[in-house]
Known about the structure:
alpha+beta
Amino acid sequence: MSRAIDTMMARYQPVVEECCFDLWKITARKSHILASEGPERQNFEAEVRLPHVPDMIFAENCLHLQHETGFGIEFTSLEALKRVDAERDLVHVAGAREWKEARAECEHVENVIHPFDWTFSTDYCGTLTGPDNIRLVPEPTDEQIDVERLKVRNKISFYTEVVLFEDELHDSGCSVLSAKIRVMPDFFLVLLRFYLRVDNVLIRVNDTRYFYQSGADHVLREYTSRESPVSELDMVPLSVLNDPVEIIEHLKIKTRCLEKLKFPANSIESSHGALTAAP
């Protein structure tokens, strides 16, 4: 049955969505789940170096933002999973032993019994792409994304969501990473969200937001990690616990980092030249 599914997925044609905004080209690629066996699977697992990988990996899925002058930002499952702790089990639950035993027939059974972060928690914030001398340059800032402005209703020029990986933690909860982008007439906003629910133990949400205002020479990046034990959420309705959007208002902020991603100087000169030369 698994081979039949793999064959079907191999015939699946990826869906590519594109949008242009300012000097940016936005591309969202959506494809099938990574096959359960074969060279692509082997290569992926070799790069990730985890005893076990999520049940649903969308290895070909990608959200990519490419600036005309050469630099960009992209979001992939491979780079996200590289940041999962491969040596320490940071979450201990009553079902951890059962989770391991249920994978007794896994080809990596000898490794599965060793500790690692089986929740696949990642602090991945995206990948800055481009030649070494033409990349966005992160620097600390106090400037925050104007949340109230994001709430103003206006025409949405483009919107899409790309799922990167998902796992049900052997019925112990849910772990999922996805990237969304919303393009408005004068700005775009990207939300990379890792949502983790370990039943009766904890809920964690790691959010990374990218905000770009038309004509600006930088992108604002905000990373926030929230987490609370379920024991402190006993007054929160179950429907909210299972909703990544609603639950964040009830979680404690553990980490917050604000950065301004400055355009490289040579790209600013190039973009000014392009705008000057435009009819």
